[in-house]
Amino acid sequence: MTTAGYITGFIGAGLTLASYMMKSMMPLRLVALVASVFFVAYGWLEAALPSLVLYSIMIPINLKKAWEIRKLVRAMETAKSDAPIAEWLLPHMTRRQAKAGQTLWKKGDVATEMIYLESGTLRLVEHEEPLAPGSLIGEIGLFSPDNRRTLTVDCATDCTMYSLTKEGMAQLYFQNPKLGYHIMRLIVARLTRDAEKARQSPRLEHKQPDSG
User: Fold this and answer.
1) N or C: which end of the chain has fewer CB within 10 A?
2) 3-21: string of b/e by CB count within 10 Å (b at 16+)?
């Protein structure tokens, strides 16, 4: 083994070990990318074909994963409380269909997913309130202390929707811990709007009609 091969091999091994100690995905991917470069150099210097081939493949894989994480981070950092969820979260959700009359969950059920409605109409049963396409529901239940649904939701019509499970949300959070902050920001904005609606409702009910 040449001196250069010896050095590059140990640097690659050290960086690989360091990547396993990373607490977030972006640093992990970057360190793994650099480690792959050193292992490619090692394979070239020592004519170690398996190492050369394996880590030559790992370089574009790590580049792609790092780019995906960075794209998510940028989207989350620029997300506003009224930003369409499709701009940043939809690519990580699973598309599915539901028939009219189907119940998505009942009040008191354990919250396991959040839903983005692409087409059709959902209904908040207790409030008799329809939800139009573009609505995001169920996200608050994923973060509530008891993790329970507060309302029953069913399909008023055939619906196309996207879902993200609690586990999927956890994976996104692991990729970038900043995600938790931005999700909380969006949820607080939702709760603030709901509270404002609740305060305005009594006023509207008791407001006298204009004499003109």
Assistant:
1) C
2) eebeebbebbeebbeebee
